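Format notes (please read before filing issues)

Several people have asked whether sequences and structure tokens are stored in separate files. They are not. Every record keeps both together, in the order shown below: the sequence lines, then the token lines. Line labels are part of the format and must not be stripped during preprocessing.
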Amino acid sequence: MSEMFCFQCEQTAKGKGCDISGVCGKKPPVAHAQDELTCEMIALAAATDASRKNHVDLIVDGLFTTITNVNFDEGVIDRLTEKMRAERTALGAGLPITPEELFHGDENIRSLRSTLLFGLRGMGAYAHHARILGNRNDEVDAWFIKGMAALAGEHSVDEWLGLLMEFGGVNLKCMETLDAANTGAYGNPVPTEVTMDVEKGPFIIVTGHDLHDLKMLLEQTQGKGVNIYTHSEMLPAHGYPELKKYPHLKGNFGTAWQNQQKEFADVPAPILYTTNCLMPPKESYSDRIYTTSVVAYPEMKHINAYENGTKDFSALIDHAIKLGGWAESKQFTGINGGTTVTTGFGRQTVLSNAPAIIDAVKGGAIKHFFLVGGCDGAKPGRNYYTEFVKQSPKDTVVLTLACGKYRFNDMDAGSIGPFPRILDMGQCNDAYGAIQVAVALANAFDCGVNDLPLTLVLSWYEQKAVCILLTLLSLGIKNIYIGPSIPAFFSPVVLDTIIEKFDLHPISTPDQDLKAILG
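Then the structure lines:
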């Protein structure tokens, strides 16, 4: 009998599922606690309605908690489960699905149910970030209740597929809500070159996705001689005017999340985890880890928010001052040897240059656009994305987003006229901006998005990638390439259905795929 079962991420054991211990570091007791929490969320959703915002918020936070590499603390998860159970029992409701039933049963139904659940987990992260900034969408709130309740229901394969497509459309609205929250709070991103060097003296590394936490930390470190460096998905923060105005936001430390155990070893600075991806920490830096929000790991220091949403980072700041940083400035590089990276090509910047881009396409200077992005990961095969960009013709433009960009974002790929060939559009949720750019270009050329000289080449790892993929499919976008492997939760029948309906392609080799795309 297996100790646990989890197949929600790309690196799941043997491409089938983790049944002894999670490849991510999740142990069986934590896996069981997350399954119990999930069933309580489903039960509460089945008994409540979206007018009870406290219930929506509980479910959103629970979904975020169960994303890969977010929360490894069984006690924290159990306490959240108890809150959920108390609300459910107060409504006189029972448990419509048990942990034993959650990932069992008919293979195709299990596949479709899991796909919807994992998509909802991804959308939960986006809704959480938007809510922290005071933005929410009533339709999105209602769909958290509808979608979670649907997980316990009986549906045909066609009905499940209908739910997935409906969900994809709602997730687009959720990403739009977060886009409005971020740009409303921090301004529209602008192109910004970011150093990977670290200056001497005290500093703090901030990883995850939460720009609000970064803003509060920047405010609290003003004038204290402590520099701030982003890590992984926090890199796009440098493009936002209301964040880049702080002179002590100095640069970006390291590369993507999966390299943290090597890159953080013996670093003389504390690290703040605002969201995923947290890996089980090594002894060489575990005493310097601080978590916040839904992130937790046993025995790691945690910073809670006050009722008004503010946080006191003084312990983190004092720790940075005590550690002192490096005595001399250090130079670091990306995986291709580059010492700087550029971010800030949000949809507003790209669309403001639309006339010049259109002229470049019509004049033949730009022959094709690629969106190469998504989650990075540790599994072998992800150098595909590095080689794909290296081999892409010089008359093509590479849009990118999320942490998959670290496979190539430090390369000098040249430029086409005034445009760098690699345009970093931001975090994974900025897929919304990429979609808006595609729609605008399609309108300008009086064609459909699928008729554009545009190909999406996606890497996936966790559940936010799932909700983005479902959004793209719900929009009817076809001919997407995905890798480095196909989700284990796609049954053969479900996979064949998606491939047939949407012309989805598992990646092969950069050379073969480029030939197939460009002819």
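For reference, the curators noted about this record: The mean pLDDT is 97. DSSP finds 18 helices and 16 strands in the chain.
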